[in-house]
Design a protein that fits this description.
Layout: E1 4-9, H1 13-24, E2 30-35, H2 38-47, E3 52-56, H3 64-74, E4 79-85, H4 89-97, E5 102-106, H5 110-126, H6 139-152, E6 156-161, E7 166-171, H7 173-179, H8 183-199, E8 209-212, E9 216-223, E10 227-234, H9 242-257, H10 289-300, H11 306-328, H12 333-338
Parallel strand pairs: 1-2, 1-3, 3-4, 4-5
Antiparallel strand pairs: 6-7, 6-10, 8-9, 9-10
Length: 345
């Protein structure tokens, strides 16, 4: 059980108290802070980030949706539960597009709220640690990131972990902040790319996605499994062609892959194969002498009654005569004499 800081934002004191009581009933290590407006929530978040935001959609000042978007620019992995009085289809669609974890109608059923919080907790615990990720980049790695940014002629570069946390950045920080609102969408694109790689039987994604904008060109690529690199080029001043930019970013990804800790490959489970003895083969009698000898040897061990043998050969002869007549379509000698075809001399 890890420590979680939860921010409750609502202009009604009774709602905040009810939500706090619901959180405390879970017996988790929660640090619960409250705010009455979106502006106050921004100040609270500036003092210390939170892991879970519970906010009303309709607030005095900035809305809960706008608050959610601003806080996720700083913390992409932020879990968000929205509440609204009689949410209509428009609000539901906005909450879905903003990737809120839940939208709960008011008056709030505490059971529904607790269930939504539990889902957020389960989602956190279900995310495995793929590699030991540094909270801060080492000095040499930070310098390497800055050096790469200069060599590529990029406006900015940002190194992310698999959850969207910023591990390091280089270049113009203003340009880097321009793409922070896009991080959740970029993570979805990288997730789709990883699934395609798995479908192509490639355990580690090897991708490079490019998006051209009015002012910047944005490149994003996996670095192994747990990291991603964002590279921004100013397309109004840079002399790079698209092909050259691709080569530069690909080279930077390969270099960083050798410097960042990667997860150990999960060995494929060993499948025990049950050895099944082949069925006994029956030797067929063919035209070669070897098969004939085997058949004769087998026959020599059999004890048959002479009358049975004679009856067998008589039956076989009659059958052979009948088969020959049928195949040739002809008639017997006696039948030919009766028909006058053959006459006695």
């Amino acid at each position: 059980m890890s420590h979680w800081r939860v921010l409750i934002v609502d202009n009604q004191r009774g709602v905040r108290r009810s939500l706090r009581t619901g959180l405390e009933s879970l017996m988790e290590d929660f640090e619960i802070v409250e705010a009455t407006s979106g502006e106050e929530a921004l100040l609270v978040f500036a003092e210390a980030p939170v892991e879970l935001l519970v906010t009303g959609v309709r607030l005095a000042g900035i809305s809960g949706l706008e608050l959610m978007q601003r806080l996720r620019q700083r913390r992409p992995k932020l879990k968000v539960i929205l509440t609204a009085s009689n949410p209509d289809a428009r609000i539901s669609q906005q909450a879905l597009q903003a990737h809120a974890n839940a939208l709960i109608p008011k008056p709030i059923e505490i059971a529904d709220f607790i269930e939504a919080v539990q889902r957020c907790l389960d989602d956190r615990e279900a995310t495995p640690k793929q590699a030991e990720q540094p909270d801060k980049l080492s000095g040499s790695l930070s310098q390497h990131l800055e050096s790469q940014c200069q060599e590529m002629g990029a406006a900015a570069t940002v190194l992310l972990d698999s959850g969207g946390e910023i591990l390091g950045q280089a270049g113009d920080p203003t340009k880097a902040q321009m793409v922070m609102p896009l991080v959740p969408a970029l993570l979805e694109a990288l997730g789709a790319s990883a699934r395609l790689s798995q479908a192509l039987e490639r355990p580690m994604p090897d991708d490079l996605l490019c998006y051209s904008g009015a002012k910047i060109d944005l490149f994003v690529a996996h670095i192994g499994q747990p990291y991603a690199l964002l590279v921004m080029f100013d397309n109004t001043t840079m002399g790079n062609t698209r092909a050259r930019a691709v080569r530069l970013v690909s080279s930077a990804v390969r270099e960083l892959a050798g410097l960042l800790p990667q997860p150990e490959a999960t060995p494929k489970p060993q499948v025990e194969v049950e050895m099944v003895s082949p069925p006994p083969q029956v030797k067929k009698v063919g035209k070669n002498t070897g098969d004939l000898k085997v058949a004769l040897d087998q026959a020599s061990d059999m004890h048959l009654d002479p009358q049975d043998v004679e009856a067998f050969w008589e039956s076989a002869t009659e059958q052979q005569d009948g088969d020959s007549a049928d195949k040739s379509g002809g008639i017997s000698f006696d039948q030919a004499q009766d028909m006058g075809i053959i006459q006695d001399e």
